[in-house]
Amino acid sequence: MLRRVLLAGLALAPVSIALHWLASVGAVTEFVVSAIALVPLAWLIGEATEHAADHTGPGIGGFLNATFGNAPELIIALLAVDRGLAEVVRGSLSGSVVGNLLLVLGFSLAAGGAGELDRVSTLLSLALVAVALALFLVPAVPGWEGDPNRHSLAVASLPVAVALLVVYVVVTWKALRRHHELHTGEDDALLGWSLPVALGALAVATVATALVAEVLVGSLEDFAHSAGLTDFFVAAVIVAIVGNAAEHGGAVVVARRGKIKLAAEIATSSAAQVAVFLVPAVAILSWAIEPLALSFRPVELAALAGSLVLAAALLRDGRSTRARGLVLVAGYVAVVVAFLLAGDRFD
């Protein structure tokens, strides 16, 4: 059923683009339609990546997943950089990590109920987020005074970004080897799409995502103003959820089918991937447009730290329960309220 809805939802991509270029429907309508349109596109990218990885093996498959699995968020971030919306970029990235650790993981545990988790993999992902959080302090703390977007902070963000990418490559390589050894002899082939079909779908979905994301970013400020919300809140909550929506829904569906271990890994590994891959990738690629400083606000870092501590405390024994899931969701509600009350940085 969900798959059929997502397939039908792909029609919203051309609708969103047409509304922007051929009609005058207003920023609110453009933002809402484009935000919804990104969900099935993100799902299609995930599907195509998974099918392509089935033909290329775990090494290249891991690279494809990292590159294209984060494509919607990466495209949104770079388009926001191009429009000078640095706070939107940082908000969407930090909000994505928090959303994965609290909202997605929480709903997954609540849907799956009691069960065992892959404790090693879970703690590794949380450790990666902790490393990223510690390194974010290097450019962030100086940014709490003066201009947070000054060039010196963008320069200070570069070694942080490079270090995180190195950590990501090393850990991902070892993780792929571990999973390969764990699943040696298993035939997990999807036996669905051919490699040309998968790559073609990936290319079309990525281009469509770029076009729809441009509409989303272009209407974000007007939508926030019309809705009485700050740009930061819209980015950290709404955009962050939309960029991961298909993956989020997939984790919950998997959990409801009894595969709570897989669902939890999707949530925690997604959080780690955003923290140690997507954030530094955006920081480095931004230099081709406008250098981005990773000068996260205190409220963002506090939300990241709180999310990390809460998730680690609840999952340290490698067990899942519905109650723990509900606690994580409650934690996310608290973060949303904090983001709402924080306002924009320069208010």
Describe the structure.
By secondary structure, the protein is mainly α. The chain has one domain (2-342): A middle domain of Talin 1 (Up-down Bundle), CATH 1.20.1420. The protein is 80% helix and 1% strand. The protein contains 13 helices and two strands; from the N terminus they run ααααααβααααααβα. The protein has helices at 2-9, 12-22, 27-56, 58-69, 71-82, 86-112, 119-140, 151-182, 195-227, 231-256, 260-285, 298-315, 322-342, and strands at 115-116, 319-320. Strands 1-2 form a two-stranded antiparallel ribbon. α1 (2-9) packs across α3 (27-56). It is globular, with a radius of gyration of 19 Å. The relative contact order is 0.21.
The arrangement of helices and strands along the chain is: HHHHHHEHHHHHHEH
Would you state the CATH class? Mainly Alpha
Return the structural class.
Answer: mainly alpha
Give the integer mean of the pLDDT values: 86
Estimate the helix proportion, in percent: over 70%
Question: Largest beta sheet: what is the strand line-up?
Answer: 1-2
Taken as a percent bin, the fraction of beta residues is: under 5%
Count of extended strands: 2
- CATH topology, which one? A middle domain of Talin 1
Uncertain stretches: 180-190
- Shape assignment: globular
Number of helices: 13
Main β-sheet, in a few words? Answer: 2 strands, antiparallel
